[in-house]
Amino acid sequence: MRILVCVKRVPASGGAPQLNADGLDVRHLAFTVSPHEECAIEEAVRLVAEHGGSVTVLTVGPVEADEQLRYAISMGADDGVLVDTGTGELDPQATAAVIVDAVGDLETAAGPFDLMFFGNESPDAGHYQVGVRVAVATGRPMVGGVKGIEVDPGLSRVRLRRDVPAGVEVYETPLPAAVAVKEGLNLPRYPSMRGRLRARKASATVVRAAVSAGGLRKVRLRLPEEKQSETVLLGHGAAAAPAVVDVLQELEVL
Amino acid sequence: MVLAFVDLDAGSLTPSATETLTLARELASTRGEPLRAMTFDDSGRHDDAPTAAELTTYGVVRWFRVAHPLLDAYSPELWGAASAQLVRTLAPSAVVASAGDRTTEVMAQTAARLDLPLAANCTTITATASGDEWRLTRVRNGGMLLEDAELVASTALFTVAAGAIEPAPASVVGDLTTETFSPVLDDTLPHARVIERTTRGDGVTLASARVVVSGGRGVGGADGFAPLEELAELVGGAVGCSRVATNNGWRPHRDQVGQTGTKVNPDLYIACGISGATQHWVGCMGAKHILAINTDPDAPLVSRATYAVIGDVGEVVPAVVAEIRRRTPSPLPLPAPGVGADGHDGDRPDL
Ligand SMILES: Cc1cc2nc3c(=O)[nH]c(=O)nc-3n(C[C@H](O)[C@H](O)[C@H](O)COP(=O)(O)OP(=O)(O)OC[C@H]3O[C@@H](n4cnc5c(N)ncnc54)[C@H](O)[C@@H]3O)c2cc1C
Fold first, then answer.
1. Domains with residue ranges and CATH for chain B
2. Which residues in chain B have Cβ-Cβ distances shorter than 8 Å to A187?
3. 3-state DSSP assignment of residue B41
4. In angstroms, rounded to a whole number, what is the distance separating the alpha carbons of residues B293 and B230?
5. ipTM of model
């Protein structure tokens, strides 16, 4: 089976965001893909190990996103495609259109993808829609929030599990299909030494794309107001236990 | 007209639907347009009167019940195609929905089918008196940042972040007309559908617990969670963790608090050996009180916490457990070695 995984280069930092006139100041930050997308790569690699086929990883963004493609390859993906749209942020309609074009080219060259994986939402922009737009444009059914995937042995249908507030829902859909996954789907591997060597030598395909803007335009980013409060220090080490239990009683949780 | 996509739970408005309707009504009144509602119902219930009464309270004047045999079980594509048909037919100036999993999915399907922009997770939306320009603020980075944005469209699509709007019934209510909208649907459209649904049992869940005792890298390993389990048991709470604990296989992912885990809103969040990275913080910032136990007095979570203990989790948490037992001596038996605090065997975390 042929599987496409779409990933996005995003800041990895857990520090407080620093803003400048253009938005987030990313000059000193390290980058990664979302935990959701790490699980998508892992799942694709496992499915191909079981059923045969290949995993292609696609990213839309700056040329630096090559780093994220190589990480995916080090986890076991077969090849990477980078659509260079520069450093500016794209709106979700524009991102989807660029992916749809790239998918068209990849499928013309090497045949249709049986599965397309996306992260449930990007951890930075969080538009919750790029995967659905690509799925609709390419005529595929799509389920989001997925934490369990079971492909039938004939490779004609797939069962998908997602958590909902009331419990669990199981979906069935014919292949080809698109799936947006969430962290928890699996426990992604750390890349092996062999994987890392392979990734270093791999050459990701880089293509350029023209971008046409959609109807949503970011004006600026800002920090939400946070209520500032002094931290009450209850003490040091085990000696603080009585003060902690006083607080538990005060808050009536005991 | 402004169209609210209203999610129902067994025929009743969900809390997020009342928030959606409140915001949609404000937009409609700014623009001098009527408020209409679209609903789907997969509960198999057919008494409309209570739903109609609730919609009327929130100022809806016309209600479209979307109905078709193919819509009885949820399917993102079929619900999306049906919603797109109604939106195309009505050509509203805006469609507003809550930001739940399912409503977001149907809105994205609608947006994709009509090639319209969709702004997700809005906290405020401002209508201009006419025209097709909107201003909005939306949540980004799981809640660490806000984005001010503009949206231009013949029909603008929005989802509203949970809790952003205080729900309020309309001050003036009119008469409600109810209509059934029967979309043209065809089983040959490739689609996913729900084939099975299981309901979670009662009991304390991470998302609903009054107290969450959470551990991170500072706990040191899977075994280090035993005293946290014990403390959670004593306060009737749930155990949570950071992504480091999940990634190391110390805890299952369903325990993870944070941007890509669960958002919790307890009265008290006890963070043991967790630094407070932004991606963790957005998952616990809804807690009323936070107690941070950390060796590092400068850890971000210590600065943001209500209370802090500076020290080693491995010493502080067992001491707290012992102090609770000392103060509440009788009803809680001391655990025998290898037996959990509730007296049952085998309550080790399943990894
Ligand atoms: C897109 C994205 C999404 C993410 N989503 C999540 C998420 O959902 N949830 C999440 O938690 N993280 C998430 N992360 C990861 C996050 O950035 C941090 O890496 C993670 O939260 C750190 O976990 P930690 O606090 O346990 O570990 P560290 O950051 O390593 O902190 C350990 C803390 O323990 C203290 N400590 C050490 N030893 C002791 C001791 N003996 N006693 C007491 N204290 C001690 C240290 O002082 C330190 O403060 C995400 C990251 C990205 C990029």
1. 2-181 (3.40.50.620), 211-327 (3.40.50.1220)
2. 246-247, 249, 253
3. coil
4. 16
5. 0.97
Residues from chain A contacting residue B300 (CB–CB below 8 Å) = 15-16
Q: Is the CB of B280 under 6 A from ligand 1?
A: yes
* Chain A contact probe: residue of B109, B115, B309 with most A CBs at under 10 A: B309
Whole-angstrom distance, CA of residue A183 vs CA of residue A116: 16
Dump pLDDT digits (tens) for B53-110.
999 999 999 999 999 999 999 999 999 999 999 999 999 999 999 999 999 999 999 9
Residue A162's pLDDT is what?
97
User: Edge to edge, what strands does the sheet with A157-164 contain?
Assistant: A205-208, A79-84, A54-61, A2-7, A115-119, A177-181, A142-151, A157-164, A167-174, B193-199
Place of tokens 């270093």: A200
Which CATH number is associated with domain A2-208? 3.40.50.620
Domain boundaries along the sequence of chain A: 2-208
Q: What does the DSSP assignment read for A149-207?
A: EEE-TTSSEEEEEEEETTEEEEEEEESSEEEEE-TTSS-PPPPPHHHHHHHHH---EEE
Please tell me the distance in Å from A43's CA to the nearest CA on chain B: 16
Query: Atom of ligand 1 at shortest distance to CA of B215?
Result: 26
CB pairs under 8 A between A and B: 259
With contacts defined as CB-CB under 8 Å, which chain A residues touch B235?
A: 248, 253-254
Rounded to a whole number, what is the distance in Å from the CA of B192 to chain A's nearest CA? 4
Contact A232 B307 (CB under 8 A): yes
Q: For residue range B131-150, what is the model confidence (pLDDT) as tens digits? A: 899 999 999 999 999 999 99
Cβ distance B62 to B176 under 8 Å?
yes
pLDDT digits (tens, 9 = 90+) for B198-249: 998 888 899 999 999 999 999 999 999 999 999 999 999 999 999 999 999 9
